[in-house]
Structures are given as C-alpha cells and as structure tokens.
Design a protein that fits this description.
This protein is α/β, with parallel strands linked by helices. It has 20 helices and 15 strands. It binds nicotinamide-adenine-dinucleotide (NAD). Nicotinamide-adenine-dinucleotide binds next to helix 1.
Length: about 475
C-alpha cells in the first residue's frame, strides 16, 4: 500500500458494491484498498474477501459491529438496498468515515435531510452515486449548453426510455417492484435525471407537476391461462416479450439494446450473435473480443445467480423471483410517468420515463434560441449532435465511454472523483455536491406528491 492509498470498507457486496465500484481498487491498488467488508450473504462475503485479501477478523455479517469498532480506514462505500442507506451512512459519518453512498440517498425526504445534516455537522464528505454526472456524455452536454452556443434555452425534452426487459427485471420481478419496500420509481430510476437536468442547464425548477400510473403489469392483462411462472407451461411462451427464458437465456433483447446504441464492430457482432450465435461462438475462438458476448456473465444474469452458468440460470427461472409471470408479480410501481418542470428562466423541461421501450436509451432534445441539441445515451454508446440555426453548422460528438464501462463510464469515474475529493479535503465543495443531490431527491418526492395528488408543486414546498 502506498502512503496516499485510501483505505475503504464495503457495506453490501452485491451488484453495485462488489461489481461496479470495488473493481476500481483492483485496477488502481495504489489509490484504493478495501480493508473490511460487511455482507450477510456468506458466499458474496467470501468472494469479495478473497478478491481483496481481507482477513477473517475484518469480515462482518452486517454493518453494525463494523461501525461500532474504531475506524479501520478513511472511507465507507455503502451499496445496500434503498431502504438500508440512512442508518449505516449516519453511523459511518459519526464513526469518522467519509461515505460513498448509493442512490437513492434515502427513501424519505426526512432521511435525505438527515443525511445531508449529518455530513454538514460532522464535516465528513458524503458523495451520492449520481454516476451520470461523471460520464463523458453528460459532461459534454453540460459544456455545450453552458457555452451559450444554443442561445437561451427555450424547451427541453428528456426521456428515460427503460427497456421492456429491464422494466420487467428490476421493477416488476425484482428489487424495486414495490414502492413501500423500496422507492417510488421516479426516485429509484430518475433521481439521476432530476440531478443532471438542473446541473446541465445551470438553473433550478420553480414548480413541477407530474402524472403517471401502472398501466400494463396487472393481472387483468395476463394472457389467458398464463400460470404463475413462465416455465409452468405458459400458452403465450412463443409470443410474450416477458417470457423469462427469452430474456435471460436467449438474451436477444439485451443484445439488441446494446447493438442499437453501438456502432461498427460491436454493432455487427451483437446483431450477428442474436441471429447466428453458433457463428459468433466459432469466431470467438480466434477473435477474443467476441467472448464479451459468448462468455457474458454480467448484469442482469449476475442478479439471478452468483455463478450464471446455464444450469444455475435455469434453476433461478424455475424457482426464483425472475421466473415469475410479470402479470402475477403484484408490483405496484408506475410503468410510465411524466414530470413537467418550469425552470427559473421560464423554460419548460419534461422528463418522460416509461418501461416499455424496445431498447434501453436515454434521449435528450434541447431547443435554444440559436440552435438545437439532440442526444442519445445507451449501453452500446452515446452521441450528441448540435445544429446552429443561422449557419446550419452541424456538429457530431461521439461521447461513448468504451465497451464494458458501467453507466457510460460513470461508475469508475465517480469513484475516482470521490477519491480525488478526499485527497483534496475540500469539505465545502463536497457539501455543495451533497446539497445538489438532496435537491434532486426532493424533486423526486415532489413529483411523486404531484402524481398522487394532482396539480403543481412549487419549490417553496420542497425547499432544500
Ligand atoms: N448508481 C446507480 O446508477 C445504481 C444502479 C443500480 C442500483 N443502484 C442502487 O444500489 C443499491 C444496491 O443495489 P444492488 O443492485 O447492488 O443490490 P444487491 O441486492 O445486489 O446488493 C445489496 C447487498 O447488500 C447486502 N446487505 C443486506 N443487508 C446488509 C447489512 N445489514 N449489512 C451489509 N450488507 C447488507 C445484501 O446481502 C446485498 O448483497 C440500491 O440502493 C440501488 O438502488 C444504483
């Protein structure tokens, strides 16, 4: 360990903690080292401990005993489920740790304020994982808007097009299907969007209104005779887009989303793999890059089984939550919602979120008095185009982060920014960042309030 290495503790060695952020320590061991872990799942705990050489006496089944002891490092990464953020984050800051906390920071406005207040009071940095801020894509968009090239911003339409299979995976069959147990979908999925829109535009909303509902994933929409689980002889197995083996064994919808937003070799390879898997299997023997497709074991497969071998996926579909019929899951979160915000400068901004997109992609269209910006941000790549009214000057920017970079490169860049902030010790700047994250969360609660009660909610109500 070199003298500048930040020593960190991981709380929650699941998808995000172990697979999205912790790999930074393996890639840059001179910057970050994990020295302890708290994780109730014995297999996950052991795997993480082995990868990061964590001794037995620094492996815990839960975060409480770890945080009761004197601090063993400078930072804590908290990646437990949404409703398990506040207590460990407050305890960690009080124990003297700086905290990298997964979004949503908490599931109530009160707890979000408590977290912000604890950071202000203790002087411990609290970074919320708003990964989109660190992507080349949204950084470029912000730079372009703030350069003034579009003139005055007059209208913004931003869409979070959640693919039908991602919706089914996370918000119907998965961890975020119940708003009481986890979060309203506008918070779980779109606190990122509510964070970046004011940040890109350099102004805040003064009022908002929202509408939305759960339209499709209801028992009355089930195909006739559909059983509780896909593998129990569903009569719609050849036509239903949510048929679990189609999503998790064929993986065609997953690769389709990837292909649709990628270019060149990656696009060709993914499309060919969907239609001619044997050809790509054979070519992968001589073209190692193709093993990214043929040996894929990442999300969402890694959620079904820690070792996503075909027999384990089959077992998960037979017995686990991801093999259930989407119409019989009892989910209660929306599958479409629109938020209309009026910004300080008067411009209307719409955020449209829905879970029926053919492909996974965020799209943005910003109309200015002097030009137009259009953008798409997907799992295969991202791009921005800009057109100037007077000159008809057309510019294109490839803002892709490269293959295998989670959230368009945001995941690892976020960790780098957190470490950099700790090294600089700029508590004020970090607190300003936490305040902005708090603001994004309060916008999400206000949107949910408006959706349920109708009418506009003004910024005086949500405050900060
Ligand atoms: N930043 C993003 O873009 C982004 C993307 C996806 C998910 N998330 C958020 O990340 C968080 C984690 O999601 P995930 O998909 O990794 O979930 P996960 O279920 O895979 O991981 C959570 C882990 O926490 C562990 N845990 C439970 N109780 C614990 C305790 N008492 N002490 C320590 N660990 C405990 C669980 O066993 C599990 O391994 C969620 O809040 C989610 O909303 C953020």
């Amino acid at each position: 360990m070199s003298p500048g290495t930040i020593r960190a503790v991981l709380i929650g060695a699941g998808q995000r903690g172990a697979l999205s952020y912790a790999p930074y320590a393996l890639q840059f061991p001179e910057e970050l080292e994990f020295v302890a872990v708290a994780e109730p799942d014995a297999k996950r705990r052991a795997t993480f401990a082995a990868q990061h050489n964590i001794p037995q006496d620094k492996q815990f089944e839960s975060w409480e005993p770890l945080l009761e002891n004197p601090a063993v490092g400078e930072a804590v990464v908290i990646a437990t489920q949404d409703w398990q953020h506040t207590a460990p984050a407050v305890a960690a800051m009080r124990a003297g740790y700086h905290v990298l906390l997964e979004k949503p920071m908490a599931t109530t406005a009160e707890d979000c304020r408590l977290l912000y207040g604890t950071s202000a009071e203790t002087g411990r940095q609290l970074f919320i994982c708003h990964v989109l801020r660190y992507t080349p894509h949204f950084l470029k968009m912000r730079e372009l808007v703030q350069s003034g090239v579009l003139g005055r911003i007059v209208q913004v339409s931003h869409r979070e097009n959640v693919s039908f299979w991602h919706m089914a995976h996370s918000y119907v069959r998965g961890n975020w299907a119940n708003s009481e147990q986890s979060s309203p979908m506008i918070l779980a999925k779109c606190c990122h969007d509510l964070d970046i829109l004011p940040w890109i535009l350099g102004q805040n909303p003064v009022q908002l209104a929202s509408t939305g509902s759960l339209m499709h994933f209801r028992p009355e929409n089930a195909p006739e005779g559909a059983p509780a689980r896909c593998l129990e002889g569903c009569p719609a197995e050849d036509v239903c887009p949510y048929f679990a083996p189609f999503i998790y064994q064929d993986m065609a919808p997953f690769w389709n989303s990837f292909a649709d937003t990628s270019r060149g070799f990656h696009r060709w390879a993914a499309r060919t793999y969907i239609h001619y898997p044997n050809l790509i299997q054979a070519l992968s023997l001589v073209v190692p890059a193709l093993r990214q497709l043929t040996h894929y074991e990442g999300w969402p497969l890694s959620v079904l089984a820690q070792d996503p071998a075909p027999e384990n996926i089959e077992a998960a579909l037979r017995d686990g939550p991801y093999g259930r019929c989407v119409y019989h899951c009892g989910s209660d979160v929306v599958d479409q919602q629109v938020v209309l915000m009026q910004m300080e400068d008067g411009a209307p901004v719409t955020l449209t979120m829905h879970g029926h997109s053919h492909n996974e992609v965020r799209t943005t269209r910003i109309e200015g008095s002097e030009g137009r910006l259009m953008a798409e941000f997907g799992p295969g790549g991202s791009r921005i185009t800009l057109d100037e009214h007077r000159t008809d000057w057309h510019m294109e920017f490839d803002t892709s982060a490269g293959a295998g970079s989670g959230h368009g490169g945001g995941d690892l860049r976020l960790v780098a920014a957190f470490l950099d902030s700790l090294r600089r010790g700029d508590t004020e700047a970090a607190l300003q960042g936490t305040r902005e994250a708090l603001q994004a969360h309060l916008l999400a609660f206000a949107a949910e309030e408006s959706r349920l009660s109708g009418g506009f909610v003004s910024s005086e109500t949500w405050g900060t």
